């Protein structure tokens, strides 16, 4: 569910599907991402139920969380994948997702990535520009195949969300501008190695207001009519992802049913097969980032800091988008305190919460940063020489490692000492 959480307090301790988080921290160390499998499955079911009346394919947007186990889970439930690079395509294939359920996005696909997608037999490639369309046609010709493509239209709708995650506006690099479309359609009529089968949009991420989708889809449907009029049989309409989740219980997300209520009737009329690309919705609330309180300190102004062993290298969203993530003490304490929860990285933006009231957990205690299933581990980095954490999947109370913690040896494995001249 958008606001689903499979993390609950049991006998004063935060648990995932009944598995106590302290024991997981003990076994696997910290920082640690802990994912509830049940949460993945139930979020997918909730999403599918909302759009059930529509002939559709849900393509999980792998960029939100690309762990092979997560992708495999959705693949086994029947989903396809939306991938944004050769690397994500590789991951989706490794996870066992059939290529005919994979769609390839990306505003800057390299020729080798286009060739890889064509060789893999993906369902379609999205086209983001006239030049890219020519490139796909040329590469398909070299490969001796006809590439199925969808045009990503920029509907020029500015969805209300953080400016860094709005994509459907003419200011942004994404999609094809409406002024370019007639040129694209006439070019399509002359190319022999591409076949237009779809139209696509994606207006941004974490969008609460259904009306932005309605406005953008209205524009996409205009293009749909235009394309049909020009003799193109459009099989697929892809309306992208961006469906919101609850990060802050005080600001609950709009239910997915509200989006379906508005969009399904508009889409049904077209008779096209619909593609949906949820990322965050399926994974955000499936995972917490567990970290240990290393030190507590305060300054002369009375300000208090909890210095923990995870940081912006494991969750960059507060630093990058001023995002709110709940921070809970794994063990409940009666005393509350207002503090900044900060990491060990040498940046002032390395914080999870500022001036937040939290349980006054002791040094050595554990904190859980909530809603870390989307755009957390995938955006992790080695900055400051940090090792990417382990990831654990909890399934019915049992826990299994799904990604090993990085080692110091791996940190230097790709550096090559240049030969020293004498
Ligand atoms: N489809 C396309 C073409 C996309 O670019 C994206 C996300 C999605 C689907 C999935 O969007 P979702 O359903 O997850 O909102 N790092 C940012 C989010 C960047 C989203 C990029 N594109 C964050 O942490 O909020």
Automatic annotation (TrEMBL):
Stored Pfam families: Orn_Arg_deC_N
Residue positions where N6-(pyridoxal phosphate)lysine is found in the record: 63
Protein source organism: Chlorobium phaeovibrioides
Family listed: Belongs to the Orn/Lys/Arg decarboxylase class-II family. LysA subfamily.
Gene Ontology molecular-function annotations: diaminopimelate decarboxylase activity
Gene3D superfamilies cross-referenced by the UniProt entry: Alanine racemase, Lyase, Ornithine Decarboxylase, Chain A, domain 1
EC number: 4.1.1.20
Superkingdom of origin: Bacteria
Binding-site residues for substrate, renumbered to this chain: 280, 317, 321, 347, 375
Keyword set, alphabetical order: Amino-acid biosynthesis, Decarboxylase, Lyase, Lysine biosynthesis, Pyridoxal phosphate
Function statement: Specifically catalyzes the decarboxylation of meso-diaminopimelate (meso-DAP) to L-lysine.
Stored SUPFAM superfamilies: Alanine racemase C-terminal domain-like (SSF50621), PLP-binding barrel (SSF51419)
Protein name (Swiss-Prot/TrEMBL): Diaminopimelate decarboxylase
Cofactor(s) in the UniProt record: pyridoxal 5'-phosphate
Coiled-coil segments on the chain, per record: none
Taxonomic path: Bacteria, Pseudomonadati, Chlorobiota, Chlorobiia, Chlorobiales
Binding-site positions, pyridoxal 5'-phosphate: 242, 277-280, 375
InterPro entries given in the database record: Ala_racemase/Decarboxylase_C, DAP_deCOOHase_LysA, De-COase2_N, Orn/DAP/Arg_de-COase, PLP-binding_barrel
Subunit record text: Homodimer.
Gene, per the UniProt record: lysA
Limits of the Orn/DAP/Arg decarboxylase 2 N-terminal domain: 39-284
CDD domains cross-referenced by the UniProt entry: PLPDE_III_DapDC (cd06828)
Pathway: Amino-acid biosynthesis; L-lysine biosynthesis via DAP pathway; L-lysine from DL-2,6-diaminopimelate: step 1/1
Catalytic reaction equation(s): meso-2,6-diaminopimelate + H(+) = L-lysine + CO2
